[in-house]
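FORM 12-B: Structure-to-Sequence Request
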C-alpha cells in the first residue's frame, strides 16, 4: 500500500535558482550632504501655581489683569449669594450662605469642622467634557 502512495506523488523539478539580490547602493560622498541633525526644541517651562492662577484671570493675554477680568469669573457666584437681586451683597446675605455651608459640612453637628468635614466645603469641580469624536 505504501508503494502505491509513493508512486501517486508526481516528481517535481527543483525550484528555479534565484539570483542573489544586488547590494544596496553606496551613498559615497553624498552621505555628508545631509548635514547635522536639527536642534531639539527647548522644553516649555512648567508654570508655577501663581502663574497658572494669573493666566486664569488674564483673559486677553496682555499680561495685565483688569478689574473686569478679575471680577468676571466671580459673577455667577455673586449672583447666587445676592438673594434679593439688587447687585449689593449685604453681610446678612453672605452670612446666611456661609452658615448654611457650615451646617451642611458639620456632619456630627458639634459646631466644629474636622479636616474631613472642611474638605467637603471645597468648590465642586466640573467634570471635563468628553470628546464627541
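FORM 12-B RESPONSE
SEQUENCE OUT:
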Amino acid at each position: 500500500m505504501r508503494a502505491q502512495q509513493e508512486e501517486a506523488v508526481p516528481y517535481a523539478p527543483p525550484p528555479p535558482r534565484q539570483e542573489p539580490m544586488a547590494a544596496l547602493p553606496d551613498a559615497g560622498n553624498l552621505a555628508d550632504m545631509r548635514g547635522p541633525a536639527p536642534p531639539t526644541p527647548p522644553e516649555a517651562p512648567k508654570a508655577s501655581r501663581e502663574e497658572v492662577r494669573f493666566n486664569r484671570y488674564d483673559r486677553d493675554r496682555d499680561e495685565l489683569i483688569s478689574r473686569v477680568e478679575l471680577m468676571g469669573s466671580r459673577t455667577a457666584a455673586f449672583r447666587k449669594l445676592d438673594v434679593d437681586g439688587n447687585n449689593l451683597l449685604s453681610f446678612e446675605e453672605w452670612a446666611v450662605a456661609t452658615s448654611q455651608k457650615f451646617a451642611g459640612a458639620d456632619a456630627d453637628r458639634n459646631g466644629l469642622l474636622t479636616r474631613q468635614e472642611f474638605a467637603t466645603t471645597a468648590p465642586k469641580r466640573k467634570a471635563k467634557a468628553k470628546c464627541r469624536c
